[in-house]
Design a protein that fits this description.
The complex is a heterodimer of chains A (about 290) and B (about 325). Chain A has about 290 residues and is of the alpha/beta class. Chain A has eleven helices and ten strands. The longest helix of chain A has 17 residues, at about 140-160. Chain A is globular. Mean pLDDT of chain A is about 90; it is low at about 285-290. In chain B, the strands form two sheets. Chain B has a two-stranded antiparallel ribbon. Chain B has a two-stranded antiparallel sheet with strand order 2-3. The longest helix of chain B is centred in the middle third of the chain and has 27 residues, at about 200-225. With about 325 residues, chain B is mainly alpha-helical. Chain B contains 15 helices and four strands. In chain B, β2 (about 140-145) and β3 (about 150) form a beta hairpin. Chain B has helices at about 5-15, 15-35, 45-60, 65-85, 90-110, 115-120, 130-135, 150-175, 180-190, 190-195, 200-225, 235-250, 255-280, 295-315, 320-325; strands at about 125, 140-145, 150, 230. Classes of the chains: A alpha/beta (about 290), B mainly alpha (about 325). Chains A and B meet through α2, α3, α4 and α6 of A and α8, α9, α10 and α11 of B.
């Protein structure tokens, strides 16, 4: 693996909605409610290009809903957001993906009755053979298909699934499916990868390798946003942490800033716990959420 | 009991018009359901618009025969678009409901007196396929082996029908192996996953509905050209369910499944019908319990039983891959 290029986040003020020097994703005034329940209400959120941003928050904080809204899988009630300077809040999910902002799912969505290799090949963009009339003449897409297959095998090799290429994706274990989904997302060659709980239900050994792959994405110059519950994971790989509670961004900063933030302790453990912590430590900097 | 007779009766349907019509319809359904997962429970509507498009084109609009066939094909595309646009963005069940309803509406409309001037109403439309039979290169006479015989005109339409079955099977084989077919399979497996990878799920579903619809329309066209008559009583929901039966027999998602399923379906149905007819002759043991008028229902019960056993012991159909049926889709 190449030398780590950790983006410099020291100059950024750790407050909700903090401006970033080079944001790849900018979110403004996004609100999504289900009936009377407000699931997402984000005033301002910027994601720094080339960083790994962790999104944390208690269950029901609206992390997945925010993912769904930003990637076009659910419609927001209102709000605007732009990716790489381009407004995308009116685009459908497949167009968002084609622009280079690709998401994975909390519950993996391996295409079970297709081979692992076909899962990968599917994800390549701009395939001539995906157009109806071109599909009928193999000569029009054969060269591209060979190229796509080659790239698919390289990526499978990278996530140690090369020997599974011809198996049905449905025969993979939970952890292997997560790896497949990550590799498949990379076939799109995305600038921004949005991973919804990439380590959920994955055994510790595979978690280790998954985290290696995620860090490698940043080192290739891609931006990663991921939802995570395991604070060890968050601490290990994230450059920046965004804390959501009840749909809103309540804190932002480096890992250390966030776990010390009374609002965060409050959101996770309740007000009384937060107050006791503050009283006990005097400066409120000893809260450890792990 | 004359098993030879039953075999010939079964074979007549299995190589003849019934198998061709249902094979074409099942090839269309295989594109829609087998590859894309679209639940079309009103497939017969595509046969109907193909048939009426052709008949009306010649009889009412005075088009040349092949232009009228194109009109039937165009009608199938229009039907796919009309069905697809409001439903394909919704969950799968909506397409199922809308297709059933549309097929019934079309059936009732074409046989109603209101549109008699165009559709022939309860009388149907006849005598529009003359130009097709004028092209028949086969000299008049009877052709066949033993008691399995066809007239020259019947042989002509059967030949054309099987050529169409072969061509559309080839077309589906080419599509199934292409990246286009891969996108359809991905949509069948999980359309959100396909969407997250940049595939325009709606556009592909619409294409699948239209391509499958056009192939099925040719089933309707062969049916009415064979009879040189559009029978307004034919287009009942049972036709759709027979096509589903044939496809499931063969194994959805397999290229040759529709042909194998349709041939087998008609062979079993007609051979058994022939056997039963012999068995219930007056004075026989079975004749005391089953009257000739019950026969139609009894043979369907048998087909149902065959299907039940198939689903229990070979859920992937005759041609399907067993591992595929057993894979953990969750």
């Amino acid at each position: 693996m190449s030398a780590e290029i950790v983006p410099d986040t020291t100059g950024i003020e750790p407050v909700p909605g903090a401006a970033k020097p080079d944001p790849v994703l900018t979110v403004t005034d996004v609100r999504k409610s289900f009936g009377g329940v407000i699931a997402v209400d984000v005033e301002r959120l910027e994601v720094q290009r080339g960083s790994i941003t962790a999104m944390i928050g208690p269950n029901g904080a609206g992390k997945t809903t925010l993912f769904n809204v930003l990637t076009g899988f659910e419609r927001a009630n209102h709000g605007t957001w732009s990716f790489d300077g381009r407004p995308i809040h009116e685009l459908s999910a497949h167009r968002v993906a084609r622009l280079g902002m690709v998401r994975t799912f909390q519950l993996t969505r391996a295409l079970a009755r297709m081979s692992v290799l076909d899962n990968m090949r599917l994800a390549a963009t701009g395939q001539r053979g995906e157009r109806f009339w071109s599909a009928l003449t193999r000569s029009r897409w054969q060269a591209q298909e060979t190229e796509v297959t080659e790239r698919a095998r390289e990526l499978l090799d990278r996530v140690d699934l090369a020997d599974k290429a011809d198996d049905y994706a449905g025969t993979l274990s939970g952890g292997q499916r997560k790896l497949l989904e990550l590799a498949r997302a990379l076939m799109v060659d995305p600038q921004l990868v949005m991973l919804d709980e990439p380590t959920a239900g994955v055994n510790p050994v595979l978690v280790e390798s998954l985290l290696g792959h995620i860090t490698a994405l940043r080192d290739e110059g891609r931006t990663v946003v991921f939802v995570e519950h395991d604070m060890d994971v968050v601490q290990t790989i994230s450059d920046w942490v965004v804390v959501l509670a009840e749909g809103a961004v309540i804190a932002e900063g480096r890992h250390g800033d966030c776990i010390a933030n009374p609002a965060v302790i409050d959101a996770y453990l309740g007000t009384r716990f937060a107050e006791r912590e503050r009283a006990a430590s005097g400066d409120g900097r000893s809260g450890d959420l792990t | 009991m004359d098993f030879g007779q039953a075999f010939v009766d079964g074979l007549r349907a299995a190589v003849g018009i019934p198998a061709i019509v249902y094979a074409l319809a099942a090839i269309g359904l295989n594109v829609q359901f087998g590859f894309t997962g679209l639940l079309n429970f009103g497939l017969v509507a595509f046969l109907l618009v193909g048939a009426y498009g052709t008949a009306i084109g010649v009889a009412e609009l005075g088009l040349p025969f092949f232009a009228a066939v194109l009109l039937g094909v165009a009608a199938a595309v229009v039907l796919a678009v009309v069905l697809g646009i409001p439903t394909l963005r919704l969950r799968a069940e909506y397409l199922a409901i809308v297709t059933i309803a549309t097929a019934e509406i079309l059936r009732i409309v074409v046989r109603s007196q209101t549109f008699e001037g165009i559709t022939g109403g309860p009388q149907g439309i006849g005598g529009f396929a003359g130009a097709f039979y004028d092209l028949n290169p086969i000299p008049a006479g009877r052709y066949g082996i033993g008691s399995l015989e066809f007239t020259a005109n019947r042989l002509w339409i059967i030949l054309v029908g099987w050529v169409l079955v072969a061509l559309f099977t080839l077309l589906v084989a080419l599509l199934a192996r292409s990246p286009w077919g891969r996108v359809l399979r991905a949509i069948r497996e999980d359309e959100d996953a396909a969407r997250s990878l940049g595939k325009s799920v709606f556009a592909y579903k619409l294409q699948s509905l239209a391509v499958g619809g056009v192939i099925a329309a040719f089933g309707g066209i062969i049916l009415v050209v064979n009879a040189n008559f559009v029978d307004p009583a034919f287009w009942r929901p049972i036709v759709t369910f027979f096509v589903w039966t044939a496809l499931i027999l063969g194994g959805p998602g397999r290229v040759f499944a529709p042909v194998v399923g349709a041939v087998l379906f008609w062979f079993i149905l007609q051979a058994f019908d022939s056997l039963m007819r012999q068995a219930i002759e007056p004075g026989s043991f079975a004749g005391r319990y089953i009257s000739p008028t019950d026969l139609g229902n009894v043979r369907f019960a048998v087909v149902g039983l065959v299907l039940l056993l198939l689903v229990a012991f070979r859920p992937q159909g005759l041609l399907g891959r067993r591992q595929e049926a057993l894979v953990d889709v969750g």
